[in-house]
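To whoever is covering the structure queue this week,

Two jobs came back overnight. Logging them here so there's a record in the thread.

Job A:
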Amino acid sequence: MGQPLLRTTVQNVTDRTSNPFGLRPPFDRSGPDERTAVFGYGDANADFHVIGDHPGLHGGKRTGVPFTETANGNAIQDVLRDPDIDFVSGPRDQPVLENCYLSYVHMCSLPDGHQPTASDYAELERYFDAELRAINAHILLPVGEQATDHVLREYTTQRRRIDLNMADLHATELRGRGFMVVPIRNPTEWEDGDSEAITETLRGILASDYRQTKGVATRIG
């Protein structure tokens, strides 16, 4: 634990798209032809931070880019590519991101069919939290139950009062400690209207003075 998790400051790494803070994973359990970890990717000065679970669920074990390769990943990209949102352009496996950052609460790759254990999540929590605080985005968009639980527990005071029902939480706006949190249901669980709901929520936020969320944790407009 003697080495710092972040080796540089944000100002020195904004030209790096993948792993801009030089994180080094604590273990390598990846399968053949897979990346050791799927690091954070995108605009290090972003206002919007999309947070997934792990590479086996949300993709990137071979591309090294979050939210690629899988049905979950492609569906999230489709929302972020909406012309009125316009966070993502370019090829799906190596997208170009503007005002958006992608990362996972559990960045390390595991062999196909393996799920992170509670101790795996606990071991990687400090890496994720350090990166989230370095990005310091206005809007946190956790995808799926694991990421939503972590974000609500660590960055809001509401977790004890909230039933973690992703169908009900999907595309809602929740106040955090200096953040707005907008949970997203896993796309493979989406029902009719879920894609449109998160797209409309993001359009509404972008049309508002959303930068006022910093400090007051609410939206103006």
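Job B:
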Amino acid sequence: MVEIAPDTDTAVRGIEPGSTVLIGGFGPAGQPYALIDALRRRGAGELTVVNNNAGNGDTGLAALLATGQVRKIICSFPRQVDSYVFERLYAEGRIELEVAPQGNLAERIRAAGAGIGAFYTPTGAGTMLAEGKESRVIAGREHVLEYPIHADVALIRAHTADEAGNLVYRRTGRNFGPIMATAARVTIAEVTRVVPAGALDPEAVVTPGIYVDRVVVTA
């Protein structure tokens, strides 16, 4: 059975300095705020964080960046109207950035979970994003070789879990959570509630419990 952690600080134990951490969310939607705050309190530094964005305002991921614990961020959209924390850190040379087109980012995460060694994609070919990468022409079109993103830990937000760790998401909060859960050695999910095993309709389960290591209930 999955571990039901009593609190978020217990849930994030074992995340060490230098870890690669997948963090779910598309902007605020589906962002595991409580787990991010616990990671911030834990104080592990030199982290590589993978997220679609680079933080909003001064909460959640942005608050984690502000502590200086993140060495590198891999994301699709680093600049938004309220991404001032990241912009300041980047301008000061205090954080490294790897930009990945959104589809490539999602597929690199999914490939890690699916055991795919690498894949070719036309997205980014012929641009600065392809510099230094292997490429080949497929069906008359240039493709770039991309590699999976494996992680030590995934922090995700779901709506409901059962005692076996099966997860159901709520609307757009689903986004990157399902693929991130498969691509990390340890997956930690914050949820609104935990129900008995068997209470969830199997047809509604998006992330099977085999991919989930710890669950914690948050507000």
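Note for Job B: The CA atoms of residues 76 and 105 lie 7 Å apart.

Please reply-all if you pick these up so we don't duplicate work.
Q.
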